[in-house]
Each structure stands twice: as structure tokens, then as C-alpha cells.
Design a protein that fits this description.
Glycosyltransferase, two-stranded antiparallel sheet, three-stranded antiparallel β-sheet, mainly alpha, 13 strands, globular, about 45% helix
Length: about 450
């Protein structure tokens, strides 16, 4: 039995501004003669670039509203505007769920906005990025000095005392992209700090695989594909040094050797030396999304003649095939990819849409994958609420070893895990406008008509 679809509200096409799904939808249909027409819960259409952009603009507006870039005295409630006057009780504005902070989820938003600015020419997206980083590097030194002097922790503690890839990799990968557009000595100095941590400070297995010392003494998380590989890839671009590309490729290959399950085409969420070689496998959606996005980000900048490129391409393609085969009839993917009893989850679905669309746009995947990205985007866009928040996003999830834990992860819309939706929309606009791909929409009202994509005639 199919999992009910959450209430959905979104602009799917220019002519369809509000779509509501039956919460008890059944994908089966009666066929009375030869004229039965499918009743899609989410319109089975090819959206226009303008419609996709309208959805992205709502997300941007939500981000702008929720990123106040302010500091307050927590004791008095008054705003502090001068870092030199930082008080013992100063805090970042926390009213909007964390968008003012140095955090990996904000790194995904910023990287996505960097892409959207390029794809659409709308400078407001990249302007958001520069405002955010300017705020961070204006205030971080004062908070760091206070912490070093008093021991008082703050929202900048993850910068002052980096202890995990989560604390630096994704958000600094986005910082490198911003630095390349708008060079700033403060940004460049901090990039070197993060480089020192990831390249020489972070715990690794003896073979150099970046690892964690939790929840077991030596553990691998599929999440860490995105927490390290995009940063290493961007460092390769920034410095021109091949050692960063070499390390990024090594992470893909060696993480995949332990975490990828070839017969399923999916990644296990975590692996530990204590359970090898009989590690219990749980296919959490967002973990697989982190891997797919990271490989796409790496392949985008990895030199064509790099000796490890074919290995990464093979891994990316094998994973995408598994992802495509796990897609639900709604266009979305389940929170646990192999368990239809778990809810349809938005952030991972968006990650898959981005990776598939990027693969087609860059020529790593054949055009025939396009309908998966398009229908996936339609499902994701239906989760974007009128105010720009995104519904159906799984909360933060640790690496666990029992299905009971995973089956009870909550989902909601008050979250900063919406950057992948922005990423997906930006890449889908590229796909729809891609002159190398010919997309034929389904015939409206037809009993048997599919979306098809083929290489465009030359």
C-alpha cells in the first residue's frame, strides 16, 4: 500500500499556481475501455523555466526574511551593532531557526544560490551570499576573542573549535565559490584554516579515508561525502594543486568500497570497523543525496584527464541508476529508500533531482534520464509552501543501526535543510533550457503518453 502524500501547495507550471493532493491517493485506476486517463496526484508536466524560477524566488525570499544578520544582548534584548562593544551576553539573532549561523546547511543554501545566480542572471542570489559571509567575518573575531578569554561558547564555536567535518566542509566549499567571485583576505585566510583541519587534522582511517570517532570508535558516514569532497574539489580549482583532486577522488573510491551496496545501487548510511564485514545496512535518503550531490560537484570541476575521473564517473552512474529505480510514483523518494512504509521526503528527493539533472546537463548521463529529474522536481516543488518554507524535510539524523530509529525520524517545514531544493531548481532550469536535450511533454488528456527526452538533432 502506498504511503499517503503530505498536503502539497506549490506552483508547478505558469498556469497552475496551487495544487492539492488527495491525502489518501491511490495510484491504481480503473480502466473502462480504452479511454481511461491517468489522474496524477502531481501534474505530469514539463514546467517552464519561469515557473521553476518563481518557486526558487519564494525560497530566496524566505531565506532573506529569515537571515537577519543581527547580534543582540541576550540580557537586555538590545541590538549590538559594533563588534568592539560585544557584551558577555551577546548572541546571534536566533529567531529564525539558525540561518545566521556558520553551519553546513547554510553552506548548501549558499552554494545553491551561487548556481541560481549563474543560471538565471539574478544577482540577488549571490548578493545574499556575500552579505552572509561579510556578517560572519565581521563578527566572528569578536566572538572568538570572547570565547578564548572566558570560555563562553557561542554560535561561532564550530569555527573556533572545529571538531568535525560538519563544522567546516560544506560551508567552506561555498565560501571558496564566493571567494573566487569576490576575493576577500578574510575569506582566504579562513579557507586555509579549514584546509589545515580537513587535510591534516580530521581523523582518518589508516588508508586516508576521512572518518569519525562516533558513534563507534572508527565510523564512516555517507553524509561525509558532502562534508569533505566539494571542499577538496573547490580547493583544487582555487589553488590549481592536483593533490586536492587526488584526495577527493580517493574519498569517493574508498568511502564507496565500504558504504556502497552494488546489488542495490544505494549507499548504506554508515559503516564501522567493529561490524565489518557484516555491517547492517540502512538506506537513508538524505545520506544517499549527500553522496550523489558530492560526486556531481566533484565531476563538475575534476580535470578531464585526471586518472581517477573514470572511477568517479562509474560510481556516480551506478548510484544514479539505483536512485532512479527507487523513485516513488509521486515523483519523490521515501525517507528510507527501500521502505515504502516511511514517508516521502523532500530534501533527499531534491538532491537526487539535482544530481540527475546535472548529470544530463554535463553529458555524464543520457538524456533519457530527464523525465526522472522533471517528475522529481514537480514533486519537490509541490512541497514548497507559499511563504517559501519547504515541507516534508527529515530532521537531522545520526548514523544508527536499527530500523526503529530511522522509521521514527520526524519531518517538518521549520528547517534550514532547504538548500537542496534550491540546487534542484537551478539545475532543472538548465535542463529545460539545455539545447542538447529535446524534451517532449506528455499529451494532456491522453490515456497513454509519457514525457520523453532525447539528444537534440544537430
Amino acid at each position: 500500500m502506498r504511503t499517503p502524500i503530505l498536503p502539497i501547495f506549490a506552483a508547478i507550471t505558469a498556469s497552475t499556481s496551487l495544487v492539492a493532493a488527495d491525502p489518501a491517493i491511490d495510484y491504481t485506476r480503473r480502466i473502462d475501455g480504452a479511454t481511461a486517463v491517468p489522474e496524477y496526484a502531481i501534474p505530469y508536466v514539463v514546467p517552464t523555466p519561469d515557473a521553476v524560477k518563481a518557486t526558487l524566488d519564494r525560497i530566496r525570499d524566505h531565506a532573506v526574511r529569515s537571515t537577519s544578520l543581527k547580534v543582540f544582548d541576550n540580557a537586555t534584548g538590545f541590538e549590538i551593532t559594533d563588534p568592539a562593544k560585544l557584551t558577555a551576553t551577546a548572541v546571534l539573532d536566533g529567531r529564525y531557526g539558525g540561518l545566521n549561523r556558520w553551519d553546513y546547511t547554510n553552506g548548501v543554501i549558499i552554494a545553491a544560490f551561487d548556481l541560481i545566480g549563474d543560471v538565471t542572471g539574478d544577482s540577488s542570489y549571490q548578493e545574499y551570499n556575500t552579505r552572509f559571509y561579510d556578517f560572519i567575518f565581521t563578527w566572528m573575531p569578536a566572538f572568538r576573542e570572547r570565547e578564548e578569554r572566558t570560555g563562553k561558547r557561542s554560535e561561532f564555536t564550530k569555527m573556533v573549535h572545529m571538531q568535525a567535518l560538519d563544522h567546516c566542509g560544506a560551508i567552506t566549499a561555498a565560501l571558496v565559490k564566493t571567494q573566487r567571485r569576490h576575493p576577500d583576505a578574510r575569506y582566504r585566510a579562513w579557507i586555509d584554516v579549514v584546509d589545515a583541519y580537513i587535510s591534516r587534522g580530521q581523523f582518518r582511517l589508516p588508508d586516508g579515508t576521512l572518518a569519525r570517532e562516533r558513534p563507534q570508535a572508527a565510523s564512516l558516514w555517507t553524509d561525509d561525502f558532502y562534508m569533505c569532497i566539494p571542499f577538496l574539489a573547490q580547493m583544487g580549482v582555487l589553488t590549481g594543486e592536483s593533490r586536492y583532486f587526488d584526495d577527493a577522488v580517493r574519498q569517493v573510491v574508498q568511502l564507496s568500497e565500504r558504504l556502497f551496496v552494488p546489488e542495490r545501487g544505494l549507499y548504506d548510511h554508515g559503516w564501522s570497523v567493529v561490524s565489518h564485514p557484516y555491517d547492517p545496512r540502512h538506506y537513508w535518503g538524505r545520506a544517499n543525496g549527500w553522496a550523489a550531490m558530492a560526486m556531481a560537484e566533484l565531476l563538475t570541476v575534476l580535470p578531464k584527464d585526471h586518472p581517477g575521473r573514470e572511477a568517479v564517473l562509474h560510481q556516480f552512474r551506478a548510484h544514479i541508476r539505483g536512485i532512479v529505480e527507487a523513485q516513488d510514483g509521486s515523483g519523490l523518494w521515501h525517507n528510507m529508500l527501500d521502505r515504502e512504509s516511511t514517508y516521502l521526503e523532500t530534501s533527499a528527493s531534491a538532491m537526487f533531482v539535482f544530481a540527475i539533472a546535472r548529470g544530463i546537463n554535463e553529458g555524464w548521463l543520457p538524456a533519457l534520464y530527464a523525465p526522472v529529474a522533471i517528475t522529481g522536481w514537480n514533486g519537490v516543488a509541490a512541497r514548497v509552501l507559499p511563504d517559501g518554507r519547504v515541507e516534508g524535510v527529515c530532521e537531522g539524523t545520526t548514523y544508527a543501526n536499527d530500523m526503529v530509529y530511522y522509521a521514527h525520524r520526524g519531518a517538518g517545514s521549520h528547517t534550514t535543510f532547504f538548500g537542496s531544493v534550491a540546487f534542484a531548481g537551478g539545475e532543472v532550469i538548465r535542463l529545460i533550457k539545455n539545447p542538447a536535450v529535446s524534451i517532449t511533454p506528455a499529451v494532456a488528456g491522453s490515456a497513454n503518453s509519457a514525457i520523453h527526452a532525447r539528444p537534440a538533432a544537430k
